[in-house]
Amino acid sequence: MLTGATTAAMLIALMLDAAFGWPNALYARIGHPVTWLGALIDAGDRRLNRADISYGSRRLAGIVLAGAVIALTVGLAFAISHLLPDNRAGVILTGILAWPLVAARSLHDHVAAVARPLAVGDLAGARRAVSMIVGRNPDLLDGPGIARAAAESLAENTSDGIVAPLIWGMLLGLPGIAAYKAINTMDSMIGHRTPRHEAFGWAAARIDDVANLVPARLTGLLFALASPRPAAVLRIMLRDAHAHRSPNAGWPESAFAGALGIRLSGPRTYAGRVAEEPWLNGEAPDPQPRDLARGLALYRRAMVMLAAVMAFIILLGG
Predict the structure, then answer these.
(1) Do the Cβ atoms of 236 and 258 come closer than 8 Å?
(2) CA–CA separation, 205 and 46 (whole Å)
(3) Which HAMAP family did the record assign (predicted)?
């Protein structure tokens, strides 16, 4: 249940991440919760996703893995949360524990790393940077293609990496944000329509779709409200969001495209295969290097607005 205490803890997590990210010294010493989850999921993938079993058995094995990873993550987070004091110190400690499960700083830094070389015409540097955040072949991308790929990643991951984990944390505390991170990490690792993972990753992908249903739409609303013309952006989002291949990604991406006056999605190449995706805000021009900087500014305004909404909820909850 959403309370002032859970919201305060998540706001602390957001502020810590915005200020510090996840420091390299901490990563070198203890790693990161996502890498811990990734190791667990990878071990399950290698052990259970066997080529010598039927399609149905592989799907069942994927369901078992998804259930086991979520149950283990929630159980551990629940046990930790019950060890924390039921006072302000407990709220602060919950925020500190939730801090690495929010990716506001790293998302901004990764996209800024694309924007900087792109702005000075360094396509090789921009391609290297964009290869860190998208799955398509960067060697096939020109300047507008690089900007488009980075803008789409920024829009979608604002929902997946920030808004969604915070919402689940506000609703269910530390177990909620931990469960969401487990779900989203599984989807990113095995929730793909490839010969190896189409059956095994089916459950991970479907659970992730459900977990992001509301956050994706709220992220689109945030982008609209943070733009100079909210009503027009909302119209574009409501018109184009359903055209996206994902049931969720189209909402933040179409709002982002409308807010910046650019087109996103469209045809792209994965593993040598051209995917003929429809355009979002298709009547607008392709993004240019300056649009990526404008997109980062829009992202920052949306994050400030999100923090303000959380602070208002805290005030209402006492």
Answers:
(1) yes
(2) 18
(3) CobD_CbiB
Question: In terms of C-beta distances under 8 Å and separation of at least 24 residues, what long-range contacts does 192-196 make, across chains too?
Answer: 196/49
Q: What token pair was written down for 296?
A: 């980062």
- State the Cα–Cα distance between residues 307 and 7, nearest whole angstrom: 10
Phi-psi region of 126 (alpha: psi -120 to 50; beta: other; left: phi over 0): alpha
Q: How does 274-295 read in b/e, with b if 16+ C-beta sit within 10 Å?
A: eeeeebbbeebebbbbebbbbb
> How far apart are the C-alpha atoms of 288 and 273, rounded to whole Å?
25
pLDDT digits (tens, 9 = 90+) for 154-185: 999 999 999 999 999 999 999 999 999 999 99
pLDDT score for 151: 97
**Residue recorded with tokens 């087109």:** 263
Distance of CA 214 to the CA centre of its chain: 13
**Helices 213-225 & 230-240, crossing angle to 10 degrees?**
150
Mean pLDDT estimate for the chain: 94
Domain edges within the chain: 4-317
User: Which residues face 90 on adjacent strands?
Assistant: none
Residue-level pLDDT at 318: 66
173: number of Cβ within 10 Å: 24
**Angstrom distance (rounded) from CA 215 to CA 102:** 14
Residue 27: CA count within 13 A, CB half-sphere? 8
Is the CB of residue 198 less than 8 Å from the CB of residue 243? no
272 sits in the region (left: phi over 0; alpha: psi -120 to 50; else beta) called left
What would the two tokens of residue 35 be?
């890498």
From 65, 74, 73, select the one nearest 201 (Cα to Cα): 65
Residues 306 and 166 sit within 8 Å (Cβ to Cβ): yes
pLDDT digits 0-9 by tens, 200-220: 999 999 999 999 999 999 999
Tell me if residue 87 falls in helix, strand or coil: coil
pLDDT score for 138? 85
Taking residue 96's Cβ as centre, other Cβ atoms within 10 Å add up to 13
**Geometric angle at alpha carbon 304, from 208 and 20, rounded to 5°:** 80
